[in-house]
Specification:
With 138 residues, the chain is an alpha+beta fold. Helix content is 30%, strand content 17%. It has one domain.
C-alpha cells in the first residue's frame, strides 16, 4: 500500500537522514535504485504519513521490511519490534564488523534477519565501500 508523500515532507525525510538509508546506512549516491520514503508503521497498521513515522530507506531494506512492524524469535518464544529510526538509536542495536551489520539487541536481531542486512551481495558491497571510505554513509 502506498500513499503520496508531499514533496516538502519527502525532502525533510531525506535531509534528516543525510541521504542515507536509516536501516542499513547506505548513502543514496551508492545505491543502484533511488531511495524510498518508508512508513515505519505501515499504512496497513494505521501509521500516519507524517514526519515522525517516515524514514529514508534503500530499495532492498524497504522491500524486505514491507509492512512488518515486528518479528518472532523462536528461541525466545517472543515477538520483538523492528528497529524504529525515529525512536531507536542505531548504535544501541547494531555494530559493523567486516562489512556485516551485527545485532546487539533482540530488536537488532529481528531487524537484521527481516531486512536481510547480511545477504552476501550486501556485505560485499559494504566491504568495497568501506575500503574507499564511503561506508557507512553517515
Amino acid at each position: 500500500m502506498s500513499e503520496y508523500v508531499p514533496e516538502k515532507l519527502r525532502s525533510l525525510v531525506i535531509a534528516r537522514a543525510s541521504h542515507c538509508c536509516e536501516y542499513c546506512l547506505m548513502h543514496d549516491s551508492d545505491l543502484i535504485f533511488s531511495g524510498h520514503i518508508d512508513h515505519i508503521i505501515s499504512l496497513k497498521h494505521e501509521g500516519p504519513t507524517e514526519a515522525g513515522n517516515l524514514a529514508y530507506s534503500c530499495l532492498v531494506c524497504n522491500v524486505n521490511k514491507g509492512t512488518d512492524v515486528a518479528s518472532y524469535l523462536r528461541e525466545e518464544d517472543e515477538y520483538y519490534p523492528l528497529f524504529h529510526p525515529r525512536r531507536d538509536n542505531w548504535h544501541e542495536h547494531f555494530y559493523l564488523q567486516e562489512g556485516r551489520i551485527i545485532a546487539k539487541t533482540k530488536i537488532g536481531e529481528v531487524t537484521v534477519r527481516i531486512l536481510q542486512f547480511n545477504r552476501t551481495d550486501r556485505v560485499q558491497r559494504r566491504l568495497l565501500l568501506e575500503k574507499v571510505g564511503r561506508y557507512p554513509g553517515k
